[in-house]
Amino acid sequence: MTEPFLSIRDIRKTYGSVTAVKNVTMDVAEGEFMTFLGPSGSGKSTTLYILAGFQDPSGGDILFKGKSLLATPSHKRNIGMVFQRYTLFPHLSVGENVAFPLRIRRTSQAEVSERVKGALKLVRLEGFEDRKPALMSGGQQQRVALARALVYNPPLLLMDEPLSALDKKLREEIQFEIRRIHQETGVTILYVTHDQEEALRLSDRIAVFSHGEIDQIGSGQDLYANPATRFVAEFIGDSSFIDAEIVSVDGSGARLILPGGTRIDGVPTHGSRRNGSKASLMLRPERLSLSREAVAAGLQVSIGDITFLGNNVEVSTRTAQGDSLAVRLPFGHQAISSLSRGDSAWLSFDSGAAHAFL
């Protein structure tokens, strides 16, 4: 059996009675773009710093190509690192900043010049070698930091919230550049962010962190379509929840009764399923439909705000029991022109696209 490129095994980190990371385990393939996604305090950055060697774990191991990294000091792990703050040397030029990792490795001057030139070309900053960081924009400085992390060809690149200090437009531009650089170089990237859109845009796979643990690992599409926990369902994409009761269970699906008496079949369920159990039914706004006519297995709702958002329109609705459900319809949908605030309508959905959490 082939050893994984990078294997994180039961990593734990405690600070006295506080557990920051608890039994984090995953394998990362060579060339993969893996993102650690979660809110502040979920353990994602701590896990990254343990990988980098900046912190020691309280337990567990990290294997790189089958060999433990824990006894290797951070400066000898040959791992590239890009931080939220650019950490550039203000008194050095761009070229000297990028060359720094090569200088401390005693690389020859000819090779330093060649590699710096190649790294700056990779991040599209050719001709900026003599400029000081203070004379560059935030996006340009982050590109310099990325070039510096890649200039010595590390097999693994760690990135900790590298774009959080940038505005939305610039973040999107640098996201595109990071994705391009990953595709061109094939470097394995572990990337930390709290921004779900950023994670979905960049990643091959995403590890969703919550309270120091990984709730679920998968592609963005897997996490969105098949969330394993309510936390993942809430954190990845938009969703609404209503109370329900399990009537019966058949395989992985269940028959539910909703407030008002509506019954639906074939709902994927997560948790210990028993007849009579209470559940929270998750509904994605774009998987809901609205009609002025009564529909079987539908919910009668009143229409609230109708908000134009460019390529779609978001309609807020409320059931007779007081549950709020957001509906997202494509711009130009025929239902939009026939609905007004205060109208009564019927909401329906595909039960297979919903999820019940116990």
Outline the structure in words.
With 358 residues, the protein is α+β, with helices and mostly antiparallel strands. The two termini are 38 Å apart. Helices cover 25% and strands 36% of the residues. The mean pLDDT is 92. The radius of gyration is 25 Å and the shape is elongated. β1 (6-15) and β2 form a beta hairpin.
Structural class given helices, strands, pairing? Answer: alpha+beta
Alpha plus pi helix count: 9
Spans where pLDDT lies below 50 across 5 or more residues:
none
The tally of beta strands, per DSSP, is 20
End-to-end separation in angstroms reads 38 Å
> What fraction strand?
35-45%
What is the approximate shape? elongated
| Main beta-sheet annotation | 6 strands, mixed
Radius of gyration: 25 Å
Helix and strand run: EEEHEEEHHHEHEHEEHHEEEEEEEEHEE
Main sheet: which strands, in order across? Answer: 6-7-8-3-9-10
Helical proportion, percent range: 10-25%
What's the average pLDDT? 92
